[in-house]
Write a structure and sequence with these properties.
289 residues, two-stranded antiparallel sheet
Length: 289
């Protein structure tokens, strides 16, 4: 493959200019997890994308999961993972491990990698500043939480000072009880509370496909009103349903655009935000003019 010429590099930057202008000083919330979080190569690309966006004036908020890392630590302690409706059953021992992994190693590894890429990042959990307040979601699930409030001040303070907030989704209540919060749900609630310009949900699929076995059937845009019919038709099914519900909730809370993109594609965030091409499926409230 031939190297790009200087003229070609200039054209790339010129084409990105309208998108840079659209996002400058706007908030972009990225939910990060899945294969993009496991692969060192993909992790490196994602962190590079986030630092680049931050350096051109985008206020990026990174919300991360860490299911595989929790599974690994539970396995080391001889404890089996149990799930109900896709949510981890979280007893006290599991909660202790989840908090240690998410708010500890996973969060700080991401902060460290962003710093290595030249970014300014600070890691916090939903407990810090009572960012995520929660209550029990279902007694069968133990310490899995349902969000009751998102307090945006800690995030806004960090953004104002030029930092990239890196948030692990551990919540708490007024009695000091700690809860494991689904990362998709937490990211959507945070994006809505911040009235973010966009919310990007990174997954392990191309987006919403009419035929799940045919990438050519990708649906590029879905209006919120269309989602229930797509669920009824089985186009949106299984584990994608709660992800889509999170997208819809973010739109209803004031986020302009929500994207489900394939985090397995290197630099997928940049492709979605700064190019004409775009990837994945975009959710909007109504038809765009």
């Amino acid at each position: 493959m031939n190297e790009m010429t200087n003229a070609q590099r200039a054209q790339v930057l010129i084409r990105a200019l309208p998108y840079i202008q659209k996002y400058t000083n706007k908030i972009l919330v990225v939910k990060y997890g899945g294969n993009a979080m496991i692969s060192d190569h993909l992790k490196d690309a994602v962190m590079g994308d986030i630092v680049l966006l931050s350096l051109i004036g985008v206020k990026v908020v990174l919300v991360h999961g860490g299911g595989p890392e929790i599974n690994e630590m539970l396995s080391k302690t001889g404890k089996k993972s149990e799930f109900i409706d896709g949510l981890r059953v979280t007893d006290q021992e599991t909660m202790d491990i989840a908090q240690m992994v998410l708010a500890g190693k996973t969060n700080k590894d991401l902060v460290n990698l962003l710093g290595k890429k030249g970014g300014k990042a600070i890691g916090i959990s939903g407990i810090d500043g009572r960012l995520i307040e929660a209550k029990p979601l279902d007694e069968r699930l133990g310490q899995v939480g349902e969000i009751t409030a998102v307090n945006p001040e800690p995030i806004l303070d960090l953004l104002e000072k030029g930092y990239i907030p890196v948030i692990s989704t551990i919540g708490c209540d007024s009695d000091g009880n700690v809860y494991n919060i689904n990362a998709d749900t937490a990211a959507a609630s945070i994006a809505g509370r911040l009235r973010a310009e966009s919310f990007i949900l990174m997954t392990d699929v191309d987006g919403i496909l009419r035929d799940r076995n045919d990438p050519a059937t990708l649906i590029p845009t879905i209006h919120v009103s269309e989602a229930p019919q797509l669920i009824n038709e089985g186009v949106i099914s299984g584990g994608m349903i709660p992800k889509v519900e999170s997208c819809i909730e973010a739109i209803r809370r004031g986020v302009n655009r929500v994207f489900i993109i394939d985090g397995r594609i290197p630099h997928s965030i940049i492709i979605e935000t700064l190019t004409d091409e775009g990837i994945g499926t975009m959710f909007v409230k109504e038809a765009l003019n």
